Automatic annotation (TrEMBL):
One of its GO terms (cellular component) is membrane. Residues 102-340 form the Major facilitator superfamily (MFS) profile domain. It is a multi-pass membrane protein. It is found in: Membrane. Keywords: Membrane, Transmembrane, Transmembrane helix. Its main location: membrane. This is Organic cation transporter protein. The chain crosses the membrane at residues 178-197, 203-224, 236-256, 262-282. InterPro entries: MFS_dom (IPR020846), MFS_sugar_transport-like (IPR005828), MFS_trans_sf (IPR036259). It comes from Stegodyphus mimosarum. One of its GO terms (molecular function) is transmembrane transporter activity. The lineage of its organism: Eukaryota, Metazoa, Ecdysozoa, Arthropoda, Chelicerata.
Length: 340
């Protein structure tokens, strides 16, 4: 119901969106910003699938085999033992190798048993599709394969810490400061991730990526519910998820085009630096300002929103003054009762 209709019926506006409009260019600008924020959230959540895929690997050829120009296929056939496959059948081992010798390309240990196999500490990888992954860069195979699960777990811990803390922080310090701070945390951590010199550094930075991204995603959802009219909230919040859905469909294509984890991380991070250039479109929510007694700041933001939504400023200003006056009285009454 429009404000004019409410006044004719003797009903006062219950929310500021009844005055400035529950849906308009002002809300759409905020929505667009957060729609783009939701895209990297999806990509970074799912990216470990492409950072550490199941890459075929085998024990690296010995220096003697390399000097003898032994091919990979010959090395596998003569030096890598057969082991039982998980689903049944046999396959070449990925983690053990026979302790064999080569001289001038001649295999000197023709009679080998399974007990002659030893655990290897270096590997070669199939790079026919994935040109560079974390698996081959830091040898995350065999007895180090569990480190990939650790990275995923630490990321989810960052997720958990974020959803636990960011709500309280945004209630105390405001929605806007938390969004901007966490956006900066995400971008800095994501960019530094590309410069990781070891897997431990990568894991720690992934924690901060999750911390920053999840906070932005969570608080942005709250902001949307606070700046749009009640009748539009479901539509806005539903459409907000399209950023995630679009990224979900786009990510495999990007990973196929960029088969290197370093450049893939660059591709899903650098474009979002533009968000720092347009963060000014995100105001503090009038609802938070009113709750904390910052009526003057709330009025300025609401008048700006009314202009963006092409409302009659003179009528809007008068209506806002009455609305804010009632809010101030309610706050005084609540303070009086809070004493008891």
């Amino acid at each position: 119901m429009a404000i004019a209709e409410r006044k004719e019926n003797g009903v006062e506006p219950k929310e500021f969106t009844d005055i400035i409009g529950g849906h308009g260019p002002w809300q759409l600008g905020i929505f667009t910003f957060f729609l783009f924020c939701s895209a990297p959230h999806c990509m970074h959540n799912l990216i470990m699938t492409f950072f550490a895929p199941n890459v075929e690997h085998w024990c690296a050829r010995s220096p003697e085999a390399l000097l003898a120009n032994i091919s990979v296929e010959q090395w596998k056939n003569e030096s890598v033992p057969m082991v039982n496959k998980r689903g049944g059948g046999m396959e070449r081992s990925s983690c053990t190798v026979y302790n064999v010798s080569y001289t001038n390309g001649t295999f000197l240990s023709p009679f080998l048993r399974e007990s002659d196999a030893i655990t290897c500490n270096s590997w070669e990888y199939d790079v026919s599709f994935y040109k560079s992954t974390m698996v081959d860069e830091w040898d995350l195979v065999c007895d180090r394969e569990w480190l990939v699960s650790v990275a995923k777990t630490v990321y989810m811990i960052g997720f958990l810490v974020s959803v636990t803390v960011c709500g309280q922080m945004s209630d105390r310090f405001g929605r806007r400061p938390v969004v901007i701070t966490c956006l900066c945390v995400f971008l800095i951590a994501a960019l530094l991730t590309m410069l990781s010199t070891n897997f431990l550094m990568f894991i720690v930075l992934r924690f901060f990526v999750a911390l920053g991204l999840t906070s932005v995603f969570t608080v942005s959802y709250v902001i949307l519910t606070e700046v749009v009219g009640a009748e539009y909230r479901s539509a806005y919040c539903f459409t907000f998820k399209f950023g995630w859905v679009f990224s979900y469909m786009l990510l495999p294509g990007i990973a196929w085009l960029i088969p290197s984890w370093f450049w893939l991380q660059c591709a899903i991070t650098v474009p979002w630096l533009i968000l720092l250039c347009v963060f000014w479109v995100i105001p503090e929510t009038p609802r938070w300002l009113l709750t904390h007694g910052k009526f003057h700041e709330a009025e300025e933001i609401l008048l700006h929103a009314a202009r963006r939504n092409k409302k009659d400023i003179k009528k809007t200003k008068a209506a806002l003054e009455q609305f804010l006056s009632r809010q101030m009285k309610k706050r005084k009454v609540m303070k009086m009762f809070s004493i008891f």
